[in-house]
Each structure stands twice: as C-alpha cells, then as structure tokens.
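TASK: fixed-backbone design
INPUT:
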C-alpha cells in the first residue's frame, strides 16, 4: 500500500445531492469520478494501481470503484468523494462488507502507510508485508495482503533490483557510468507504480541514488 494524493476538486457529479423524490442515485461509478480516481491512482504509464495491493490495473477493464467504508454500513457515504478509491477485484472482493470500527482499514489518501505496514530487510528474503499497528493488521486481513501472488510480485521486483546491483558492481568507472543505466533514471516514477512501496523500500535499504531523467 502507498500514500496517494487525492485530487482536491470533488467531481461535480458527486455534489448534486438527492433527487426530487429524496432518493440518492449511485454516482460513484460515473466517468467523471473514474477520471478523478485515475488521476489519483495513475502509475504514470497509462494504468492505475490498486489502493491496497498496488497491483497494476487497466482503468476500464480492471479498476473497480472501492468504498473504503462499505456501502452496507455507511450507505450515506456511497457518493462521498473521500470514501472512494480504485481497487482490484481480489482486494475489493475479499474486503467486501468488512469493517472494523476500532481499527479501520488504512486510507491511502490520508494515512502515513509506513507507520502501519513494513517489509523485512531484503537479505531475509521475506517478501511478505508485516503490520506494526492494529490498523495495519486490519488492512492485511481485510484485503488479504498476505496472498501468495503479491509475494511473488515483490520477489520479481527484488530480482530486478538484484540484477541492477550486480550491474553496478561490474560496471567500470563508478557513478558516471551508473547514470547511464535505465533503472535508476526511471525512478522515482516507478515508486508510484505497481508495487512501488516495495521498490522504494529496496531502493532505500540499499542506499541507491535517484537520478535525474535526461
Ligand atoms: Zn488489490
């Protein structure tokens, strides 16, 4: 999970209020809302990421509008901008109507995620995500962030970074040659992409520099 900046401007479709007969129609899945969520969860490469598991999603086919506070318990928040996120089918489906009032699931638009969820040091080869607070525990439990597919995705990122580190070791000439390698230049864009929180964690663990793009 990673912190995301929510666009300040509320999509106007969400501010219309109830119909004349007092009913509140579903507006959360309208195109203007999805566009605003696309901005919030963009991976910078034409897709978006899931607010919980950071999996890359095609905007039209895969990104589902997620109510952090479930509609069943908070029907009055179904069109509330700050309650809406993009999630993958796995996270959205498994979370469903679950809600813990005492220790609510983390909010990507508000919470400092790193205070609640951690990764273990790279050398441990532990690709799981771990909680450090009760809200972190709720988040892992409700969105099933301990599922195997996510560990495999992080392992894939670990391998890419390891290859990069090996390149660095074998490159002659030190940092001037490092600046020519693509992985370092594509950052920090990739930190906001798929599994970006893990990539950032590895990058910082190894003390690697972030280089300016040409
Ligand atoms: Zn997900």
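OUTPUT:
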């Amino acid at each position: 999970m990673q912190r995301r900046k929510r666009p300040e401007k509320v999509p106007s479709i969400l501010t219309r209020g109830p119909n004349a007969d007092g009913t509140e129609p579903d507006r959360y899945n309208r195109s203007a809302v999805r566009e605003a969520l696309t901005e919030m969860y963009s991976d910078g490469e034409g897709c978006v990421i899931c607010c919980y598991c950071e999996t890359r999603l095609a905007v039209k086919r895969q990104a589902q509008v997620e109510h952090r506070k479930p509609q069943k318990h908070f029907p009055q928040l179904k069109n509330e901008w700050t309650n809406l996120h993009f999630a993958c089918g796995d996270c959205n489906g498994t979370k469903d109507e679950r809600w813990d009032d005492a220790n609510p699931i983390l909010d990507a638009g508000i919470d400092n995620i790193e205070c609640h969820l951690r990764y273990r040091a790279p050398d441990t080869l532990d690709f799981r995500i771990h909680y450090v607070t009760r809200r972190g525990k709720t988040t892992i439990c409700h969105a099933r962030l301990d599922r195997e597919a996510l560990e495999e995705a992080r392992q894939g990122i670990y391998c890419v970074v390891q290859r990069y580190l090996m390149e660095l070791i074998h490159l002659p000439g030190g940092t001037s040659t490092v600046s020519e390698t693509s992985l370092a230049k594509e950052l920090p864009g990739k930190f906001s992409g798929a599994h970006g929180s893990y990539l950032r964690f590895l990058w910082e663990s190894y003390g690697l520099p972030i280089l300016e793009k040409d």
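COMMENT: The first strand starts at residue 48 and ends at 49.
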